[in-house]
Protein backbone atom coordinates (compact mmCIF):
# COMPACT_ATOMS: atom_id res chain seq x y z
CA UNK A 1 0.00 0.00 0.00
CA UNK A 2 1.22 3.50 -0.87
CA UNK A 3 1.50 5.64 2.27
CA UNK A 4 1.34 9.42 2.45
CA UNK A 5 0.03 12.15 4.71
CA UNK A 6 -1.37 15.65 4.34
CA UNK A 7 2.02 17.31 4.07
CA UNK A 8 3.16 14.86 1.37
CA UNK A 9 0.44 15.66 -1.15
CA UNK A 10 -0.30 18.52 -3.51
CA UNK A 11 -3.48 18.60 -5.53
CA UNK A 12 -3.17 19.57 -9.22
CA UNK A 13 -5.29 22.47 -10.53
CA UNK A 14 -7.78 22.26 -13.39
CA UNK A 15 -9.22 25.07 -15.54
CA UNK A 16 -11.45 27.35 -13.48
CA UNK A 17 -15.14 27.67 -14.44
CA UNK A 18 -16.15 30.19 -11.74
CA UNK A 19 -16.38 33.95 -12.10
CA UNK A 20 -15.84 34.30 -8.34
CA UNK A 21 -14.82 31.91 -5.56
CA UNK A 22 -18.03 32.96 -3.78
CA UNK A 23 -19.93 30.80 -6.32
CA UNK A 24 -18.28 27.59 -5.01
CA UNK A 25 -20.68 25.54 -2.89
CA UNK A 26 -19.15 24.08 0.30
CA UNK A 27 -22.37 22.59 1.68
CA UNK A 28 -22.51 18.92 2.62
CA UNK A 29 -25.41 16.57 3.31
CA UNK A 30 -24.32 14.43 6.20
CA UNK A 31 -26.89 12.11 7.70
CA UNK A 32 -30.33 13.73 7.89
CA UNK A 33 -29.15 17.35 7.54
CA UNK A 34 -27.21 19.72 5.33
CA UNK A 35 -24.35 21.77 6.81
CA UNK A 36 -22.44 24.83 5.60
CA UNK A 37 -19.05 23.11 5.79
CA UNK A 38 -17.69 19.53 5.83
CA UNK A 39 -15.91 20.37 9.09
CA UNK A 40 -16.69 19.55 12.72
CA UNK A 41 -14.85 20.56 15.91
CA UNK A 42 -13.56 17.47 17.75
CA UNK A 43 -15.77 15.95 20.45
CA UNK A 44 -13.20 16.78 23.14
CA UNK A 45 -13.75 18.65 26.41
CA UNK A 46 -11.00 21.12 25.41
CA UNK A 47 -12.71 21.90 22.09
CA UNK A 48 -16.48 22.01 22.59
CA UNK A 49 -18.98 22.73 25.35
CA UNK A 50 -22.76 23.08 25.38
CA UNK A 51 -22.74 26.80 24.54
CA UNK A 52 -20.52 26.27 21.50
CA UNK A 53 -22.59 23.25 20.42
CA UNK A 54 -25.72 25.41 20.45
CA UNK A 55 -23.99 28.22 18.53
CA UNK A 56 -22.73 25.79 15.87
CA UNK A 57 -26.19 24.23 15.43
CA UNK A 58 -27.87 27.65 15.25
CA UNK A 59 -25.38 28.80 12.61
CA UNK A 60 -25.66 25.83 10.24
CA UNK A 61 -22.59 23.85 11.30
CA UNK A 62 -22.33 20.22 12.40
CA UNK A 63 -21.21 19.57 15.98
CA UNK A 64 -20.61 16.54 18.19
CA UNK A 65 -20.85 17.17 21.94
CA UNK A 66 -18.22 15.28 23.99
CA UNK A 67 -19.03 12.53 26.51
CA UNK A 68 -16.87 13.59 29.45
CA UNK A 69 -19.68 14.97 31.62
CA UNK A 70 -21.75 11.81 31.24
CA UNK A 71 -24.62 12.76 33.57
CA UNK A 72 -25.46 15.92 31.61
CA UNK A 73 -26.10 14.30 28.23
CA UNK A 74 -29.82 13.47 28.47
CA UNK A 75 -30.63 16.97 29.76
CA UNK A 76 -28.51 18.46 26.97
CA UNK A 77 -30.48 16.56 24.31
CA UNK A 78 -33.74 17.77 25.84
CA UNK A 79 -32.54 21.38 26.13
CA UNK A 80 -31.21 21.64 22.58
CA UNK A 81 -34.40 20.10 21.19
CA UNK A 82 -36.46 22.66 23.16
CA UNK A 83 -34.43 25.35 21.37
CA UNK A 84 -35.40 23.86 18.01
CA UNK A 85 -31.94 22.49 17.18
CA UNK A 86 -30.61 19.02 16.41
CA UNK A 87 -28.93 16.93 19.09
CA UNK A 88 -25.56 15.30 18.46
CA UNK A 89 -23.92 13.51 21.38
CA UNK A 90 -21.08 11.08 22.09
CA UNK A 91 -21.29 7.78 23.91
CA UNK A 92 -18.76 5.21 25.14
CA UNK A 93 -19.09 1.45 25.45
CA UNK A 94 -18.79 0.79 29.16
CA UNK A 95 -21.76 -0.95 30.82
CA UNK A 96 -23.26 2.26 32.27
CA UNK A 97 -23.47 3.84 28.79
CA UNK A 98 -26.37 1.53 27.92
CA UNK A 99 -28.42 3.31 30.58
CA UNK A 100 -28.13 6.58 28.62
CA UNK A 101 -29.68 4.91 25.57
CA UNK A 102 -32.51 3.57 27.76
CA UNK A 103 -33.00 6.98 29.39
CA UNK A 104 -33.22 8.79 26.03
CA UNK A 105 -35.74 6.25 24.79
CA UNK A 106 -37.88 6.64 27.92
CA UNK A 107 -37.76 10.43 27.57
CA UNK A 108 -38.67 10.21 23.85
CA UNK A 109 -35.61 12.39 23.22
CA UNK A 110 -33.97 10.83 20.17
CA UNK A 111 -30.65 12.46 19.25
CA UNK A 112 -30.38 13.07 15.53
CA UNK A 113 -26.71 11.99 15.73
CA UNK A 114 -24.90 9.65 18.13
CA UNK A 115 -21.13 9.18 17.91
CA UNK A 116 -19.65 6.08 19.51
CA UNK A 117 -16.31 7.45 20.65
CA UNK A 118 -13.59 5.01 21.70
CA UNK A 119 -9.89 4.78 20.99
CA UNK A 120 -10.08 1.36 19.30
CA UNK A 121 -13.43 1.35 17.48
CA UNK A 122 -12.90 -1.92 15.60
CA UNK A 123 -14.18 -3.94 18.53
CA UNK A 124 -16.84 -6.52 19.37
CA UNK A 125 -18.00 -4.24 22.19
CA UNK A 126 -18.48 -1.31 19.83
CA UNK A 127 -20.57 -3.53 17.54
CA UNK A 128 -22.65 -4.54 20.56
CA UNK A 129 -23.33 -0.85 21.28
CA UNK A 130 -24.24 -0.16 17.62
CA UNK A 131 -26.73 -3.00 17.79
CA UNK A 132 -28.24 -1.68 21.03
CA UNK A 133 -28.62 1.88 19.73
CA UNK A 134 -30.12 0.67 16.45
CA UNK A 135 -32.72 -1.38 18.34
CA UNK A 136 -33.62 1.31 20.88
CA UNK A 137 -33.12 4.55 18.89
CA UNK A 138 -33.36 3.48 15.23
CA UNK A 139 -33.85 7.04 13.95
CA UNK A 140 -30.45 8.20 15.23
CA UNK A 141 -27.62 8.50 12.69
CA UNK A 142 -24.76 6.55 14.26
CA UNK A 143 -21.13 7.57 13.65
CA UNK A 144 -18.59 5.04 14.87
CA UNK A 145 -14.90 5.47 15.61
CA UNK A 146 -12.07 5.50 15.69
CA UNK A 147 -10.67 3.10 13.17
CA UNK A 148 -7.72 2.69 10.81
CA UNK A 149 -8.46 -0.08 8.29
CA UNK A 150 -10.82 -1.07 5.46
CA UNK A 151 -11.72 -4.24 7.40
CA UNK A 152 -12.95 -2.06 10.27
CA UNK A 153 -15.17 -0.10 7.87
CA UNK A 154 -16.62 -3.32 6.48
CA UNK A 155 -17.26 -4.82 9.93
CA UNK A 156 -18.76 -1.67 11.47
CA UNK A 157 -20.98 -0.90 8.47
CA UNK A 158 -22.19 -4.54 8.60
CA UNK A 159 -22.96 -4.01 12.28
CA UNK A 160 -25.13 -0.97 11.40
CA UNK A 161 -22.83 2.08 11.50
CA UNK A 162 -24.18 4.96 9.39
CA UNK A 163 -20.71 6.55 9.16
CA UNK A 164 -17.23 5.58 10.33
CA UNK A 165 -14.54 7.84 11.76
CA UNK A 166 -10.97 7.21 10.61
CA UNK A 167 -7.88 8.20 12.58
CA UNK A 168 -5.93 6.43 15.30
CA UNK A 169 -2.92 8.39 16.43
CA UNK A 170 -2.66 11.40 14.08
CA UNK A 171 -4.04 13.93 16.59
CA UNK A 172 -2.00 16.85 17.88
CA UNK A 173 -2.65 15.88 21.52
CA UNK A 174 -2.10 12.20 20.78
CA UNK A 175 0.73 9.99 21.99
CA UNK A 176 -0.84 6.66 20.96
CA UNK A 177 1.60 6.13 18.11
CA UNK A 178 4.55 6.74 20.40
CA UNK A 179 3.28 4.67 23.34
CA UNK A 180 1.79 1.69 21.48
CA UNK A 181 3.46 1.67 18.07
CA UNK A 182 0.04 1.58 16.37
CA UNK A 183 -2.03 3.93 14.30
CA UNK A 184 -2.36 6.12 11.25
CA UNK A 185 0.18 8.77 12.35
CA UNK A 186 2.23 9.69 9.27
CA UNK A 187 -0.22 8.03 6.82
CA UNK A 188 -3.62 9.39 7.90
CA UNK A 189 -4.47 10.61 4.40
CA UNK A 190 -3.64 7.20 2.90
CA UNK A 191 -5.79 5.54 5.59
CA UNK A 192 -8.71 7.78 4.58
CA UNK A 193 -8.21 6.71 0.96
CA UNK A 194 -8.04 3.00 1.85
CA UNK A 195 -11.09 3.14 4.12
CA UNK A 196 -13.20 5.18 1.71
CA UNK A 197 -12.41 2.72 -1.10
CA UNK A 198 -14.53 0.05 0.64
CA UNK A 199 -17.05 2.31 2.39
CA UNK A 200 -20.72 2.45 1.45
CA UNK A 201 -21.42 5.07 4.13
CA UNK A 202 -19.73 8.43 4.77
CA UNK A 203 -16.22 8.60 6.20
CA UNK A 204 -15.23 11.17 8.82
CA UNK A 205 -11.51 12.02 8.65
CA UNK A 206 -10.37 12.59 12.24
CA UNK A 207 -7.05 14.08 13.33
CA UNK A 208 -3.90 15.46 11.76
CA UNK A 209 -5.39 18.49 10.03
CA UNK A 210 -2.96 21.40 10.47
CA UNK A 211 -3.93 23.77 7.65
CA UNK A 212 -7.18 24.70 5.91
CA UNK A 213 -5.88 23.05 2.72
CA UNK A 214 -5.90 19.70 4.53
CA UNK A 215 -9.72 19.87 4.49
CA UNK A 216 -9.74 19.82 0.67
CA UNK A 217 -7.18 16.99 0.69
CA UNK A 218 -9.40 14.97 3.08
CA UNK A 219 -12.35 15.37 0.71
CA UNK A 220 -10.16 14.44 -2.29
CA UNK A 221 -9.22 11.15 -0.64
CA UNK A 222 -12.78 10.21 0.30
CA UNK A 223 -13.89 11.98 3.48
CA UNK A 224 -17.38 13.48 3.73
CA UNK A 225 -16.72 15.26 7.04
CA UNK A 226 -13.46 16.37 8.68
CA UNK A 227 -13.06 16.40 12.47
CA UNK A 228 -10.53 18.92 13.80
CA UNK A 229 -9.26 19.44 17.35
CA UNK A 230 -6.15 21.61 17.73
CA UNK A 231 -7.18 24.19 15.11
CA UNK A 232 -10.47 24.77 16.97
CA UNK A 233 -9.13 24.72 20.56
CA UNK A 234 -7.70 28.24 20.63
CA UNK A 235 -10.81 30.36 20.31
CA UNK A 236 -12.62 32.80 22.55
CA UNK A 237 -15.45 30.23 22.73
CA UNK A 238 -13.14 27.25 23.39
CA UNK A 239 -13.40 25.71 26.88
CA UNK A 240 -9.64 25.69 27.65
CA UNK A 241 -8.05 28.17 30.05
CA UNK A 242 -6.36 31.22 28.49
CA UNK A 243 -2.66 31.84 29.26
CA UNK A 244 -0.32 34.69 28.34
CA UNK A 245 3.38 33.94 27.88
CA UNK A 246 5.81 36.67 26.76
CA UNK A 247 2.85 38.76 25.61
CA UNK A 248 1.43 35.94 23.43
CA UNK A 249 -1.99 34.50 24.22
CA UNK A 250 -2.58 30.74 24.27
CA UNK A 251 -5.33 28.32 25.27
CA UNK A 252 -4.93 24.90 26.84
CA UNK A 253 -5.70 21.90 24.61
CA UNK A 254 -5.71 18.44 26.17
CA UNK A 255 -6.33 14.96 24.80
CA UNK A 256 -9.39 12.95 25.78
CA UNK A 257 -7.06 10.15 26.95
CA UNK A 258 -4.66 12.54 28.74
CA UNK A 259 -4.00 12.44 32.48
CA UNK A 260 -5.74 15.85 32.74
CA UNK A 261 -8.98 14.52 31.24
CA UNK A 262 -8.90 11.10 32.91
CA UNK A 263 -7.65 12.33 36.30
CA UNK A 264 -5.72 9.08 36.34
CA UNK A 265 -2.27 7.77 35.46
CA UNK A 266 -3.30 4.54 33.72
CA UNK A 267 -3.60 3.96 29.98
CA UNK A 268 -2.62 7.53 29.16
CA UNK A 269 -2.55 8.08 25.38
CA UNK A 270 -2.90 11.86 25.25
CA UNK A 271 -1.10 14.99 26.42
CA UNK A 272 -1.86 18.63 27.19
CA UNK A 273 -0.35 21.46 25.18
CA UNK A 274 -0.87 25.15 24.47
CA UNK A 275 -2.31 26.34 21.17
CA UNK A 276 -2.17 29.97 19.97
CA UNK A 277 -5.22 32.09 20.73
CA UNK A 278 -7.18 32.67 17.52
CA UNK A 279 -10.03 35.03 18.45
CA UNK A 280 -13.61 34.30 17.40
CA UNK A 281 -14.50 30.87 16.02
CA UNK A 282 -16.79 32.49 13.46
CA UNK A 283 -13.73 34.12 11.83
CA UNK A 284 -11.92 30.77 11.61
CA UNK A 285 -14.99 29.07 10.11
CA UNK A 286 -15.34 31.92 7.61
CA UNK A 287 -11.66 31.55 6.60
CA UNK A 288 -12.11 27.78 6.24
CA UNK A 289 -15.10 28.36 3.98
CA UNK A 290 -13.22 30.89 1.82
CA UNK A 291 -10.18 28.62 1.50
CA UNK A 292 -12.38 25.64 0.62
CA UNK A 293 -14.18 27.73 -1.99
CA UNK A 294 -10.77 28.56 -3.42
CA UNK A 295 -9.87 24.84 -3.39
CA UNK A 296 -13.04 24.03 -5.36
CA UNK A 297 -12.12 26.74 -7.85
CA UNK A 298 -8.58 25.30 -8.31
CA UNK A 299 -10.23 21.90 -8.84
CA UNK A 300 -12.09 23.38 -11.80
CA UNK A 301 -15.39 22.66 -10.09
CA UNK A 302 -18.43 24.23 -8.50
CA UNK A 303 -19.10 22.02 -5.48
CA UNK A 304 -17.36 19.85 -2.90
CA UNK A 305 -17.68 16.62 -4.87
CA UNK A 306 -15.62 18.16 -7.68
CA UNK A 307 -12.60 17.94 -5.37
CA UNK A 308 -12.86 14.14 -5.53
CA UNK A 309 -11.81 14.03 -9.20
CA UNK A 310 -8.57 16.03 -9.12
CA UNK A 311 -5.15 14.54 -9.77
CA UNK A 312 -2.42 14.77 -7.17
CA UNK A 313 1.31 14.29 -6.71
CA UNK A 314 3.21 12.95 -3.73
CA UNK A 315 5.99 15.39 -2.97
CA UNK A 316 7.69 13.71 0.01
CA UNK A 317 7.08 11.26 2.83
CA UNK A 318 6.82 11.81 6.60
CA UNK A 319 6.51 9.67 9.70
CA UNK A 320 5.65 11.57 12.86
CA UNK A 321 4.26 14.89 11.58
CA UNK A 322 6.46 16.89 13.97
CA UNK A 323 4.64 15.64 17.08
CA UNK A 324 6.50 14.97 20.34
CA UNK A 325 5.81 13.32 23.68
CA UNK A 326 4.58 15.75 26.35
CA UNK A 327 6.04 16.10 29.90
N1 LIG B 1 -8.30 8.82 17.85
C1 LIG B 1 -7.33 8.35 18.61
O1 LIG B 1 -6.21 8.10 18.16
C2 LIG B 1 -7.54 8.12 20.07
C3 LIG B 1 -8.56 8.74 20.70
N2 LIG B 1 -8.71 8.60 22.05
C4 LIG B 1 -9.83 9.28 22.68
O2 LIG B 1 -9.70 9.20 24.09
C5 LIG B 1 -10.96 9.00 24.69
C6 LIG B 1 -10.89 7.82 25.62
O3 LIG B 1 -10.92 6.66 24.82
P1 LIG B 1 -11.05 5.20 25.43
O4 LIG B 1 -9.87 4.94 26.31
O5 LIG B 1 -11.30 4.24 24.35
O6 LIG B 1 -12.36 5.31 26.26
P2 LIG B 1 -12.89 4.50 27.45
O7 LIG B 1 -12.09 4.85 28.66
O8 LIG B 1 -14.33 4.70 27.50
O9 LIG B 1 -12.55 2.99 27.06
C7 LIG B 1 -13.27 2.25 26.16
C8 LIG B 1 -13.48 0.80 26.66
O10 LIG B 1 -12.80 -0.08 25.80
C9 LIG B 1 -11.82 -0.86 26.52
N3 LIG B 1 -10.65 -1.04 25.68
C10 LIG B 1 -10.14 -2.19 25.24
N4 LIG B 1 -9.08 -2.01 24.47
C11 LIG B 1 -8.89 -0.70 24.40
C12 LIG B 1 -7.95 0.11 23.76
N5 LIG B 1 -6.95 -0.38 23.02
N6 LIG B 1 -8.04 1.40 23.91
C13 LIG B 1 -9.02 1.93 24.65
N7 LIG B 1 -9.95 1.22 25.28
C14 LIG B 1 -9.89 -0.09 25.17
C15 LIG B 1 -11.60 -0.04 27.77
O11 LIG B 1 -11.22 -0.86 28.86
P3 LIG B 1 -9.81 -0.61 29.60
O12 LIG B 1 -9.68 0.87 29.84
O13 LIG B 1 -9.94 -1.41 30.85
O14 LIG B 1 -8.78 -1.14 28.65
C16 LIG B 1 -12.96 0.55 28.05
O15 LIG B 1 -13.81 -0.36 28.66
C17 LIG B 1 -11.98 8.90 23.56
O16 LIG B 1 -12.58 10.15 23.39
C18 LIG B 1 -11.13 8.57 22.35
O17 LIG B 1 -11.68 9.11 21.15
C19 LIG B 1 -7.86 7.84 22.78
C20 LIG B 1 -6.81 7.22 22.20
C21 LIG B 1 -6.60 7.25 20.77
N1 LIG C 1 -4.42 9.28 20.73
C1 LIG C 1 -5.23 10.25 21.18
N2 LIG C 1 -6.03 10.87 20.30
C2 LIG C 1 -6.84 11.79 20.79
C3 LIG C 1 -6.87 12.14 22.13
N3 LIG C 1 -7.80 13.07 22.32
C4 LIG C 1 -8.34 13.29 21.11
N4 LIG C 1 -7.76 12.53 20.19
C5 LIG C 1 -8.03 12.47 18.76
O1 LIG C 1 -7.43 13.61 18.13
C6 LIG C 1 -8.40 14.22 17.27
C7 LIG C 1 -8.09 15.68 17.01
O2 LIG C 1 -6.88 15.77 16.31
P1 LIG C 1 -6.18 17.15 15.89
O3 LIG C 1 -4.96 16.73 15.15
O4 LIG C 1 -7.15 17.88 15.02
O5 LIG C 1 -5.85 17.90 17.13
C8 LIG C 1 -9.70 13.98 18.02
O6 LIG C 1 -10.84 14.15 17.23
C9 LIG C 1 -9.51 12.53 18.48
O7 LIG C 1 -9.81 11.59 17.50
C10 LIG C 1 -5.98 11.49 23.02
O8 LIG C 1 -5.92 11.76 24.22
N5 LIG C 1 -5.17 10.55 22.49
UniProtKB/TrEMBL annotation:
Residues spanning the signal sequence: none
Catalyzed reactions: IMP + NH4(+) + NADP(+) = GMP + NADPH + 2 H(+)
HAMAP family hit by this protein: GMP_reduct_type2
Domain of life, per lineage: Bacteria
Presence of keyword Oxidoreductase: yes
Primary role: Catalyzes the irreversible NADPH-dependent deamination of GMP to IMP. It functions in the conversion of nucleobase, nucleoside and nucleotide derivatives of G to A nucleotides, and in maintaining the intracellular balance of A and G nucleotides.
Pfam families: IMPDH (PF00478)
A Gene Ontology cellular-component term: GMP reductase complex
Gene Ontology biological-process annotations: purine nucleotide metabolic process
Family: Belongs to the IMPDH/GMPR family. GuaC type 2 subfamily.
E.C. no: 1.7.1.7
Binding site for NADP(+): 203-226
Protein source organism: Ligilactobacillus araffinosus DSM 20653
CDD domains linked to this entry: IMPDH
GO molecular function annotation: GMP reductase activity
EC main group: oxidoreductase
Record: active site: 174 (thioimidate intermediate)
Domain IMP dehydrogenase/GMP reductase residue range list: 5-310
Keywords: NADP, Oxidoreductase
SUPFAM superfamilies attached to this UniProt entry: Inosine monophosphate dehydrogenase (IMPDH)
Identification of the protein by name: GMP reductase
Amino acid sequence: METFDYEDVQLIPNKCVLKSRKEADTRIKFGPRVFKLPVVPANMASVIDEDLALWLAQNGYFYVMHRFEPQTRAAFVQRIHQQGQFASISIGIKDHEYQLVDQLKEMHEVPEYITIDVAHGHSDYVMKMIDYIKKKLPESFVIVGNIATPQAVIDLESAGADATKVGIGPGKACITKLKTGFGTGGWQLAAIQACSAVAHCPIVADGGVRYNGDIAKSIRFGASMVMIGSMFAGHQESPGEMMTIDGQKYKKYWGSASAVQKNDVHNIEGKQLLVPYRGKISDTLQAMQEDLQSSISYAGGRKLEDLRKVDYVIVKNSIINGDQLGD
